[in-house]
Amino acid sequence: MVHNRPPAILPSLLACDLANLAGEANRVAPTEKDYVHLDVMDGHFVPNLTWGAPVIKCLKPHCKSFFDVHLMVSKPAQWVQDMKEAGADQFTFHIEAVSGEEECNALIKTIKDAGMKVGIALKPNTPASSVFPYVSSLDLVLVMTVEPGFGGQSFMGDMMPKVKELRDKYPDLDIEVDGGIGPNNIDIVAEAGANWIVAGSSVFKAADPSQAIGVMKKSVEKHGNGKSE
Questions:
Q1: DSSP collapsed to 3 states, 146-171
Q2: Is-contact 93 71, C-beta < 8 A?
Q3: Are 64 and 31 in contact, with CB atoms under 8 Å apart?
Q4: Do the bridges between strand 90-94 and strand 8-11 make them parallel or antiparallel, or are there none, so unpaired?
């Protein structure tokens, strides 16, 4: 389905050379119009640990890009203020980490009141319908195309009907996808309706990261926005 949502390609810093985090972020996202994706994992909601607010806070002064922070944590409300103070521009939490509409709506309000954009993420086995009650209050929905917790997994193409369901129902929503995506499969993702594309290994391991980012952006413009090449 053709939509009017602009493309955003978000290099996932989990795939970069972590010994040179600021340099890697600026190599792929050097301006205030660029984006980076930061995965926060607590070792409980998912079986891996990454970084928390102190690392993000240290990185922020060295980068101009938009910080899209994806919290794979059991208690997302606990980290709202810390992430705001660290410099997060968008706070995306998992629908599976909250219990019921009251808690979810309260968390959305807390994030917005802190001055951040807000997104909800869905694990592969979670249906799109689980976010329908909240979409009017969201800036973005993230559809995971791998099981959350580790980088380098294979892309799950069977998540595309979920993306298409969201795009058909919400043509003005920013829809993000994360997991195993690169220039080799971007057309499938763009055709389904996603416009925010998280890409880790396919960017940082590319011979020319800017070229890989450009290919993916053009695919969203072509298949999502209906622009001719």
A1: CCCCCCCCCCCHHHHHHHHHHHHHCC
A2: yes
A3: yes
A4: unpaired
| SS3 (DSSP) at 132 | helix
- Fill in the amino acid letter for 59: L
| Contact yes or no for 7/195 (Cβ under 8 A) | yes
Q: What is the DSSP string of 107-126?
A: HHHHHHHTT-EEEEEE-TTS
Mapping DSSP to helix (H, G, I), strand (E, B) and coil, where does residue 107 land?
A: helix
pTM of the predicted model, to two decimals?
0.96
DSSP structural state of residue 49? B
The residues annotated with a catalytic role in the active site are 39, 178
Nearest to 140 by CA among 69, 72, 81, 78: 69
Q: How do residues 142-198 score in pLDDT, each as one tens digit? A: 999 999 986 667 899 999 999 999 999 999 999 999 999 999 999 999 999 999 999
Q: Which alpha helices (H) appear in 19-86, and where do they start and end?
A: 21-28, 53-59, 80-86
With tokens 């994360």, the residue in question is: 178
What is the rounded CA–CA span in Å between residue 215 and residue 205? 15
